[in-house]
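Action item from last week, closing it out:
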Amino acid sequence: MTYCVGLMLERGLVMMSDTRTNAGVDNVSTFGKMFTWEKPGERALVLMTAGNLATTQSVVSILDERTKAHGERDPSLFEVPSMFQAARLVAATLKDVIAAHADVGQRADASFNATLILGGQIKGGAPRLFLIYPEGNFIEAGVDTPFFQIGETKYGRPILVRAYDAAMSFEKAVKVMLVSFDSTLKANLSVGMPFDLQIYETDSLQLGRRIRIDPQDPYFERISTGWGEALKSALDSLPDFEF
């Protein structure tokens, strides 16, 4: 399994993914699930993946190859005129990869399915964030749904719902996301460190800070310990149940 979150703020986008993949309790590996494409001053895109590793790697390889091979740049993430068209291209590529490996036609519920989060900005448009399904359709983040999760989503969702504020800083957003990831990490062995973090600032048209957060990261250790202690303190402060 995996866990990825894309968060839309007034200042831009914050994207974070874990790196664990496994095919059983005794077969655990680390693979990056965050991929980027950039033409500074023109476009910056970030893709995060969850699902079958062979499927997601094939999708990323096809998208990446089209940005490099001169004869196959149409369609390409470097040529599409808008983020909406970028989402359509990624969705179509995902659907084609799944269909090519299906036993009979398109079977999105098969073991080779995948779900993606695409975020970024192309010159002439605003930053946008999309959740792309294996069937080849997608939805866009907005005021009512300002963030997307893929993978093992249930454990880390409560803190995102309670703490999200569109006006908060990148620094606070990272703190909230690390609490979300810590909650997921402690509840599910299929999610693991290190975490990859990517910041994108609105209208910069270039990728911002990219950070890998390792298990020994001192700030993450403070967040993990502090959050656990804060929860215990909050629980103790509530009145006990009376029979």
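Closing note: The chain has a mean pLDDT of 92.
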